[in-house]
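Sync notes, pocket subgroup
Present: LS, DG
LS reminded everyone that the earlier model was apo-only. Rerun requested with shikimate-3-phosphate included. Inputs:
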Amino acid sequence: MLTFTPEQRRQFAEDIDGDYRPKTNKTIVLVGLMGSGKSALGKRLAVALDRAFIDSDSIIEQESGLRIRDIFELSGEKKFREIERKIILRYLQGPAIILSTGGGAFCTPETRAGINAHAISIWLDATPKILLRRIGNTSSRPLLHTGDPLQILSNLRQKRLSDYQQAELHVRTGRHSRRLSMKKILNILEQNSYIEALSDKNEK
Ligand code: S3P
């Protein structure tokens, strides 16, 4: 469970316009491809709503003592998905948090069903080109090692689109800043009455 130092809070708060309060006691889960901003925006959302933040990949690494790419190499993707599903379903039973998931988690039917039954899901989407630019170094992403990363991301996006579309809320994170992406996320949560603004967003 990740909580933040005062310094991190200050840093993340720079990308948050206004003050908000959750009106839901459900966990908010961020889904979408690698590079869509699940972790960076998830941490900011956690600060905005004063909730703890969890990244499912980090928990998998902590609990197994292995890096994601080593799990893929040693045990294969099927085993990884099993571990991922168990961890995500476990956190969905706990207190309301902000949960950022690995890019393929929402494409495992049981994991997706658990998320949709217990949490609010937000799909963060961007074009493959933007995703790859944000990912930068692909060394920790085993799925991008089998060929041209841009082509792989395009194929994955096509293949997973119908899964991601089953997320409750959709946000395009595009080429713009984290601050603007945060605004879009907070706006859509507010429009759906999951959070409320405590101050005028234009005041800051
Ligand atoms: C994966 C995405 C990765 C990680 C694993 C598999 C995927 O997480 O879970 O490499 O299937 O798209 P990020 O989306 O956080 O990079």
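DG: DSSP finds eight helices and seven strands in the chain.
LS: The chain has a mean pLDDT of 94.
Action: DG to write up.
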